[in-house]
Design goal:
Layout (H helix, E strand, L loop, with lengths): L5 H5 L1 H18 L11 H15 L5 H6 L4 H5 L6 H16 L5 H8 L3 H6 L4
């Protein structure tokens, strides 16, 4: 049996578009973390989709366009607290929950995010 990546098992690009749309609808309205997302919403969603494609085992889409992700360095100009990371994860949890996927796959997907979210904390 051929091994499928998490990217493939969740439905690839279509699922990531749905996830990023829902996630950024929540983030841009969130009273705590909306301040971190002041640039073009469509550009932010596209960068996130490309990053998640790569992060979840799909094509190296982000690196092809923007180079190595260097996520911590890219987030360093922004003050990010543990409280911000928790809020970000709450938004992501809601976005993941909105997907039409089996619960075990939703859990596997969400479990990829906490370590990265807390790695971005810099204040």
């Amino acid at each position: 049996m051929e091994h499928q990546t998490l990217y493939e098992r969740i439905g690839g690009d279509a699922a990531l578009r749905q996830l990023t749309d829902k996630f950024y609808d929540l983030v841009f309205e969130h009273e705590l973390i909306s301040r971190l997302f002041k640039s073009d919403k469509d550009l932010i969603k596209e960068k996130q989709r490309l990053f998640l494609t790569q992060f979840l085992g799909g094509p190296q889409a982000y690196s092809d366009v923007y180079g190595h992700p260097m996520m911590r360095a890219r987030h360093m100009p922004h003050t990010i607290t543990e409280e911000d990371a928790v809020a970000w994860l709450q938004c992501m949890a809601s976005a993941v929950e909105s997907l039409s996927l089996p619960e075990d796959l939703k859990n596997e997907l969400f479990d990829r995010f906490p370590r990265t979210a807390f790695f971005m904390v810099n204040s």
